[in-house]
Structures are given as structure tokens and as C-alpha cells.
Design a protein that fits this description.
The chain has 16 helices and 15 strands. By secondary structure, the protein is of the alpha/beta class. The radius of gyration is 24 Å and the shape is globular. The chain starts with 25 loop residues before the first strand and ends with a strand. The structure holds flavin-adenine dinucleotide. Flavin-adenine dinucleotide binds next to strand 6, strand 7 and helix 8.
Length: 399
């Protein structure tokens, strides 16, 4: 689609401002919402295909797409019931129900809500924990509790809609790594999303991550099957979130990709892109999860990449398929000599996924491998890795 140009614009080289944003998202049609992890898995991972239509959104593998979630109608109703509020009350020109659905973070409690609750119900457990001023104790108390749990624990407390506007934070978009290549799937963006669900405090209600369960449960699934009232939607608000530091190397350079679980997302895009470009550089994928039978995401495509020679090396780590746990970093250790050879030949290393444990363990493994294979002491190995980072040959996209 050609963009209109302004006749008064005398600086044509200046990049156009981003067209789609949090305030002005593009409504992308959800063409596919398919569960990837199979029955039996403890994970629930979905594959999405979005139609970018006439949005003009262009992306490169490694970029993310931000999604604007909508809160679950059932949770909105439960909050209205708990606070005995009329959903049609006007809040700055918008009905309260709409505000609760689209504008406010109503699951994870914000500091101002906790402060207000503690003031209004000084005998509550929340008030006692906040009074102590112990951050760890508060974190422990809040783990598994959402706003509704806190309201149920203080059943006499009420907030007016105007007060709610002050104690809720604005609902934030969530980023998802794009798992496709525009060369392979023009006009579309694929996402690979783990639905966050856990049993809340007290064990009587399943809590859901706001955006991941919005996508899994209500994006693009047939309204006729689930009912309009369930909040099912055929389009979702998105905007691009480029990541210039997470880009494929030149076609002749090798890429080592370490992405267990949904960390595989950008690497699926990388591999499709490399295949379409006929890139000659080697591709080495480390992937893992709990069980091969249920959790091997995109297994057919990966087999095809291997058969086509796009994947030069593939190492899989399914942690719970044998008595001793095996993770991607264990596979790296097992292939230490080859990894070192690839690094010495100029390979780029990419890590994507869980930023809490996996990225740290993979980083430690890389340091050990460089030290042992390169005959370096710990400081020299650290310098080697630092230099890789400086040369943008060791990059991470972790969350
Ligand atoms: C650049 C980037 C790329 C990303 N790419 C992807 C991707 O490709 N795929 C993907 O799935 N995600 C990806 N993410 C993560 C994604 O953005 C969201 O953070 C994720 O989907 C959770 O959001 P949510 O709205 O569902 O959960 P939220 O409503 O934000 O809730 C998450 C919170 O729930 C709480 N919680 C979670 N589990 C438990 C538990 N067991 N017990 C108690 N409390 C718990 C924690 O406090 C946690 O912070 C990416 C993030 C970034 C920054």
C-alpha cells in the first residue's frame, strides 16, 4: 500500500513516525489459534497466525509484536460483584465495564490498591504484611493472589469507580517474539505463546496471565463455539516492536541458536528466513522442554529443516524423559569441542526464552566451554565472551 506524502515535508529522508502504537494499535485478524503442546503436557503453548493486511507493518526475524490484551469478562463481572458496582457507571465518558475490560490491569495488584486496601481494612493479613515493610514477606504473601483474592479477603471494603481509576494501573501491552519470516509467510506474523495458568492461593480458582490467556482462550476461536459473551474476538490490537540487536548474521556466517520452550519462537523465524534466502552459513539449534512426546514444538518443521539441510546441527534436551534431568546446557557441554570450533570460525550465538534460570545456566555453560576448550583461565574466558558480545556475536532475547 502506498503511503500518502505531505507536500510540505521538506525532509523526505526522515523516517516516518511509527504508525501503530499502544494508543493506536492495528487490529490484526487472527487466522490461526492452534495448540502446539499436546494433551499430557504440563504446558499449554499455542501457535497463532495473524493477518497484517494493509497495515504496512514490516518486520524482520528477531522482532517482536506487542499485543494489547483484553481482561476476561468473567473476572470483570466477579470484580463488579465483589464491589457491588453498576457496570454502566460512567467513568470519564466510558462505561465502567469497558474500563475494567480494556483500560486497567485488574489481575496483578498495584501498590496503590494495596495501600488503599490496607488503610480501609487495617486488620487484614495484607495490612499486617505491608505494615512490617518487609519486601520479601510481601512478595511471598502476594504470590498466587490477585486483586479479586485481596478484595474477597476484605469483603466490607468498597471502592467507587473514580477511586478504582486511581488504584488500578493502565493495562500494558505484552511483547511476543515473532516466530515467522516475512519471506516465507508474507503479510503474516506468527506467534508462539505459553498460556500462563496457575492455581491461586487457597487452591480454589485458576488464575491466568492476562495476555497469554486472552490469546489462548479468546483470540480467533470460533465465537459460535464459545459464545459471544465469553469475549471471543476475531481481531486483536497489535503494534511492532523491533529488536535491532537480535538479527540474523550475514548469509555466510553460522548461527548457534539456543531456545528451549517458547524460546524457540524467533529461531523458527530465523530458520524459515535462512531457508528462503538460501543462506550458506551453518545453523545449529538447541531446543528442549519436558517431554518429547508432548512438548516438541514444531517437530515436523524441524525434521524438514534437517532433511533439507537448513539445520546443520540439532541437539534436543527433554528434561523429564529419563531419570536424570537433561537441559540444553548439558547438551552444550556434550558438544563442547564442536561448539568451540564453530565459535572460532566466527559463529554468532543467540539465546532466547526464560531469563531467570535458563539464560544464566547457558551463559555459565558457555564460559566453561570457552575456558576448557580454549585452554583459558576464568578471566580470559570472560574476556573472550565479552568480546563476543561487543562484536554482537552473543546476543540474548530473554524474558
Ligand atoms: C521481548 C519479549 C518477547 C517475548 N516473547 C514471548 C514469546 O515468544 N512467547 C511467550 O509465551 N512469551 C513471550 N514473552 C513474555 C510475554 O510478554 C508475557 O510476559 C507472558 O505472556 C505473560 O504475560 P501475561 O499477561 O499472560 O501474564 P501476566 O498477567 O503479566 O502475569 C504474569 C505474572 O503471573 C504471576 N505468576 C505466574 N506464574 C505463577 C504461579 N505459578 N504462581 C503464582 N503467580 C504466578 C507472576 O507474578 C507473573 O509475573 C516475551 C516477553 C518479552 C519482553
Amino acid at each position: 500500500m502506498s503511503m500518502p506524502t505531505s507536500s510540505t515535508d521538506s525532509t523526505p529522508d526522515r523516517p516516518a513516525p511509527p504508525r501503530w502504537s499502544k494508543r493506536s494499535p492495528y487490529q490484526a485478524r487472527v487466522l490461526v489459534n492452534r495448540r502446539l503442546s499436546l494433551a499430557g503436557s504440563s504446558k499449554e503453548i499455542h501457535h497463532f497466525e495473524l493477518d497484517l493486511g494493509d497495515s504496512g507493518i514490516e518486520y524482520q526475524p528477531g522482532d517482536a509484536l506487542a499485543v494489547l490484551p483484553v481482561n476476561p469478562p468473567a473476572l470483570v463481572q466477579a470484580l463488579l460483584d465483589a464491589l457491588e458496582l453498576d457496570p454502566d457507571t460512567d467513568v470519564d465518558g466510558v462505561p465502567l465495564r469497558e474500563r475494567l475490560l480494556r483500560d486497567w490491569e485488574i489481575a496483578t495488584p498495584h501498590r496503590s490498591l494495596m495501600k488503599a486496601l490496607a488503610e480501609r481494612d487495617p486488620d487484614s493479613e495484607l495490612a499486617h504484611v505491608t505494615d512490617r515493610g518487609d519486601k520479601d514477606a510481601l512478595h511471598h504473601f502476594l504470590w498466587g493472589r490477585d486483586v479479586l483474592d485481596l478484595l474477597h479477603a476484605s469483603p466490607t471494603v468498597r471502592f467507587t469507580p473514580v477511586e478504582l481509576a486511581k488504584v488500578f494501573r493502565p493495562l500494558q501491552p505484552r511483547a511476543y517474539s515473532i516466530s515467522s519470516s516475512p519471506l516465507r509467510h508474507p503479510g503474516r506474523a506468527h506467534l508462539t505463546v505459553a498460556a500462563v495458568r496457575y492455581t491461586g492461593h487457597g487452591g480454589n480458582r485458576v488464575h491466568g496471565g492476562v495476555c497469554s490467556t486472552f490469546l489462548a482462550d479468546r483470540a480467533g476461536v470460533a465465537p459460535a463455539r464459545y459464545g459471544e459473551a465469553a469475549g471471543v474476538t476475531e481481531t486483536i490490537g497489535v503494534f511492532p516492536q523491533p529488536n535491532k540487536s537480535f538479527r540474523l548474521p550475514g548469509d555466510d556466517a553460522a548461527a548457534i541458536m539456543i531456545g528451549p520452550g517458547t524460546g524457540l519462537a524467533p529461531f523458527r523465524g530465523f530458520l524459515h528466513e535462512r531457508a528462503e534466502r538460501g543462506a550458506r552459513g551453518g545453523n545449529w539449534l538447541f531446543f528442549g522442554d519436558q517431554h518429547r512426546a508432548f512438548d516438541y514444538l514444531y517437530a515436523d518443521e524441524i525434521a524438514q529443516f534437517e532433511a533439507d539441510g537448513v539445520l546443520t546441527e540439532l541437539d534436543l534436551a527433554f528434561s523429564r524423559d529419563q531419570t536424570e534431568k537433561i537441559y540444553v546446557q548439558d547438551r552444550m557441554f556434550a558438544r563442547a569441542a564442536e561448539l568451540w570450533a564453530w565459535l572460532q570460525d566466527g559463529a554468532h550465538v543467540y539465546v532466547c526464552g526464560d531469563g531467570q534460570r535458563m539464560a544464566r545456566d547457558v551463559d555459565a555453560a558457555l564460559h566453561h566451554i570457552v575456558a576448557k576448550q580454549g585452554g583459558l583461565d576464568a578471566d580470559a574466558a570472560a574476556t573472550y565472551i565479552k568480546d563476543l558480545k561487543k562484536a554482537k556475536r552473543y546476543v540474548r532475547d530473554v524474558w
